C-alpha cells in the first residue's frame, strides 16, 4: 500500500494507519477535503460539505489519540452520510426544497453510531428528493454525475453516496434502500452496497419515504469495508419500533470464509426477457464462475411472482409516502409559502412550491391508492401480493443459501435519458425491488465493466439476518475479480 495515494486507501487501511500514527486525522481529512474541492464541482456528490467542522473534529481526534484515547474503530477517518439522516445542527435537506434550511435538533441513530465509532463527518451526500428516484436527478440541488463518466447518472436515490465513494471523496458512506437505492447506485458506480434485513439498522432519525421498506446500509469500496461499517451501524434501538433485538454477528470475519459447498440459486425469472443488457449478463456470469471455481454449487430456483413486484412496489411505496409526507405542510418546520390568505392556501401552496414533480407524482398515486373505495382494490391487494413474493423467496432458500442476480438491467445511462419516461426509469429497479418487499438482505458487488468501461454489479440475496452469508459470497467474488474501485477522475 506504500505507493497507493491516500485517498485510495480502504476504510480499514485508513483506520489502521491513523491508529498506528502513520498519518494524523488532520492530514487524512485535509487530503479528502482537498479532493472534494477539486472534484465535486464535476460530480456534485455533496449537498453540504463541512470543511471547518471536519477539520476541527479531526484535530480533536488527534489530541485525544495523543492522550491515549480512541473513540472507536474508525477513529479520525473521514466518512459521509446521505442527506436523509438527521444530523444535529447540520443542514438535512433530503434533497428537497421543502427542507432546504432544516437544522435537526438531534442525530439519527446511524449518525450517532458512525460518529461514536470515531469517524469524521465530511458532509451530507446528494440524493433523489425524499429518496424518490433511480438516478439522483430529482434532487432540488441538481443531479449528481457518475465519476466513471460524468455524462451519465450514478444511480439513485443514494447516488451521491455511491459517487462520493467511487470518486474517493470519502472512505465510505451510509445510504438508504427502499427499492434498490443502495444496491443500484453501488452497481453503477463500481462499489459495494449493502441493504440489510429490514429491522437490522435503526430508522430513528432517518427521514421516512416508505416506512415498511426503508433501510439504511453501507456503501464502500470493498466488501470488508462494507462489513465493518455494517457492524457499527447495525443493532437494536428502542427508539425505532421496527428495530429487532438480535445480536450483531462479526460480519468482517465472514468475508474471508470459504464458499465451498455454498448453494447459489439462479432465479430463472431474473434472466428471462430482453431487458437485460448482454454486458450485464456476461459480467454476472463471471461472478457465478468465480463462485463455482471456489467450490460453490449452482441450483436453479424460481420466484414466480417476480413479474408483479414492480406494480406491487409502486402501490405500497407511494401509499406510505403519501402518509409520511403529509407532515410537510408549512406549519411545523421546513419551507412555508409566503402571502397565503388562509391555512388551506398556505398548506397547498407550501406543498406545491416545496415538492418536485416526482414527489408530487408519487403522493398523488399513493393518496389515490389509499382513498375510500380503492384501498382494498389497490393497497390491500398489493399487500397480499407482497406476501406471495416473500413466500417465493422463503421457498427458494430451502434449496439455496444465496441467490445471484444482476443488480441493474443495464450499466449507467445518460443524464436526462429517462427523465421524461417514468415507467422506463422505474424499470431500473426491477431486480432490486423484490428484496425490499420481502424484507431480506441484499448486496451488490462489482463484477465487471461494460464495453464502454462502465461498472457492473452482481446482486446477492439471502435469508433474513443472514448478511454473513452475503459477505462470504461477495468476498469470494471480490477476490476472484480484482477490479478497480476508484474512478479515474481528475480535477
Characterize the biggest β-sheet: 11 strands, mixed
CATH class: Alpha Beta
Distance between the termini: 23 Å
Radius of gyration: 21 Å
Give me the side-by-side strand order of the main sheet: 1-3-2-4-6-5-10-11-9-7-8
- Give the topology string: H per helix, E per strand: HHEHEHEHEHEEHHEHEHHHHEHHEEH
What's the architecture, going by CATH?
Alpha-Beta Complex
Integer tally of domains: 1
CATH superfamily: Amidase signature (AS) domain
Task: Describe the 3D structure.
This protein has 491 residues and is α/β, with parallel strands linked by helices. The protein has a single domain, classed as Amidase signature (AS) domain (Amidase signature (AS) enzymes), CATH 3.90.1300.10. Helix content is 38%, strand content 13%. The chain contains 16 helices and 11 strands. It has an 11-stranded mixed sheet, sandwiched between helices. Strand 2, helix 4 and strand 3 (120-125) form a beta-alpha-beta unit. Helix 5 (159-166) packs parallel to helix 6, helix 9 packs across helix 16 and helix 10 crosses helix 13. The longest helix has 21 residues, at 376-396. It starts with 10 loop residues before the first helix and ends in an 11-residue tail after the last helix. The model has no long low-confidence stretch (mean pLDDT 96).
Task: Give the helix/strand layout.
Layout: H1 11-19, H2 25-43, E1 46-49, H3 51-66, E2 78-82, H4 109-116, E3 120-125, H5 159-166, E4 172-177, H6 183-189, E5 192-195, E6 215-220, H7 223-233, H8 251-254, E7 263-267, H9 278-292, E8 297-301, H10 309-324, H11 343-354, H12 357-370, H13 376-396, E9 402-406, H14 422-426, H15 433-438, E10 442-449, E11 455-462, H16 467-480
Parallel strand pairs: 2-3, 2-4, 7-8, 7-9
Antiparallel strand pairs: 1-3, 4-6, 5-6, 5-10, 9-11, 10-11
Helix pairs in contact: 2-3, 5-6, 9-16, 10-12, 10-13
Amino acid at each position: 500500500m506504500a505507493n497507493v495515494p491516500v485517498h485510495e486507501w480502504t476504510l480499514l487501511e485508513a483506520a489502521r494507519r491513523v491508529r498506528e500514527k502513520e498519518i494524523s486525522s488532520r492530514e487524512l481529512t485535509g487530503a479528502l477535503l482537498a479532493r472534494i474541492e477539486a472534484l465535486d464541482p464535476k460530480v456534485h456528490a455533496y449537498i453540504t460539505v463541512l470543511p471547518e467542522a471536519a477539520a476541527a473534529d479531526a484535530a480533536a481526534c488527534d489530541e485525544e489519540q495523543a492522550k491515549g484515547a480512541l473513540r472507536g474503530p474508525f477513529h479520525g477517518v473521514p466518512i459521509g452520510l446521505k442527506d436523509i439522516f438527521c444530523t444535529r445542527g447540520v443542514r438535512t435537506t433530503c434533497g428537497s426544497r421543502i427542507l432546504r434550511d432544516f437544522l435537526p435538533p438531534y442525530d439519527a441513530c446511524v449518525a450517532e453510531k458512525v460518529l461514536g465509532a470515531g469517524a469524521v463527518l465530511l458532509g451530507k451526500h446528494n440524493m433523489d428528493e425524499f429518496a424518490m428516484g433511480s438516478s439522483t436527478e430529482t434532487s432540488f440541488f441538481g443531479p449528481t454525475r457518475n465519476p466513471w463518466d460524468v455524462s451519465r447518472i450514478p444511480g439513485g436515490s443514494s447516488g451521491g453516496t455511491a459517487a462520493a465513494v467511487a470518486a474517493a471523496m470519502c472512505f465510505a458512506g451510509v445510504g438508504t434502500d427502499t427499492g434498490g437505492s443502495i444496491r443500484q447506485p453501488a452497481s453503477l458506480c463500481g462499489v459495494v452496497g449493502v441493504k440489510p434485513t429490514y429491522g437490522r439498522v435503526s430508522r430513528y432519525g432517518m427521514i421516512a419515504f416508505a416506512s415498511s421498506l426503508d433501510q439504511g446500509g453501507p456503501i464502500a469500496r470493498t466488501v470488508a469495508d462494507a462489513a465493518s461499517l455494517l457492524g457499527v451501524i447495525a443493532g437494536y434501538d428502542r427508539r425505532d419500533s421496527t428495530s429487532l433485538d438480535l445480536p450483531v454477528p462479526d460480519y468482517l470475519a465472514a468475508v474471508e470464509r470459504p464458499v465451498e459447498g455454498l448453494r447459489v440459486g439462479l432465479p430463472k425469472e431474473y434472466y428471462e426477457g430482453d431487458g437485460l443488457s448482454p454486458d450485464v449478463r456476461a459480467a454476472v456470469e463471471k461472478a457465478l464462475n468465480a463462485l463455482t471455481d471456489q467450490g460453490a454449487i449452482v441450483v436453479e430456483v424460481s420466484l414466480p411472482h417476480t413479474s408483479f413486484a414492480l406494480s406491487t412496489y409502486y402501490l405500497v411505496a407511494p401509499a406510505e409516502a403519501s402518509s409520511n409526507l403529509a407532515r410537510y405542510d408549512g406549519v411545523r418546520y421546513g419551507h412555508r409559502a409566503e402571502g397565503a390568505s388562509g391555512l388551506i392556501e398556505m398548506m397547498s401552496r407550501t406543498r406545491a412550491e416545496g415538492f418536485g414533480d416526482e414527489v408530487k407524482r408519487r403522493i398523488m398515486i399513493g393518496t389515490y391508492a389509499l382513498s375510500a373505495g380503492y384501498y382494498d382494490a389497490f393497497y390491500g391487494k398489493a399487500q397480499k401480493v407482497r406476501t406471495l413474493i416473500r413466500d417465493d423467496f422463503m421457498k427458494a432458500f430451502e434449496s439455496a443459501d444465496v441467490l445471484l442476480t444482476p443488480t441493474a438491467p443495464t450499466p449507467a445511462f445518460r443524464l436526462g435519458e429517462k427523465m421524461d419516461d417514468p415507467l422506463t426509469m422505474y424499470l431500473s429497479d426491477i431486480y432490486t425491488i423484490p428484496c425490499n418487499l420481502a424484507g431480506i438482505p441484499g448486496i451488490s458487488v462489482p463484477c465487471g465493466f461494460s464495453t464502454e468501461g462502465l461498472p457492473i454489479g452482481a446482486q446477492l440475496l439471502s435469508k433474513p439476518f443472514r448478511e454473513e452469508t452475503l459477505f462470504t459470497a461477495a468476498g469470494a467474488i471480490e477476490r476472484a475479480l480484482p477490479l478497480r474501485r476508484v474512478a479515474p477522475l481528475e480535477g
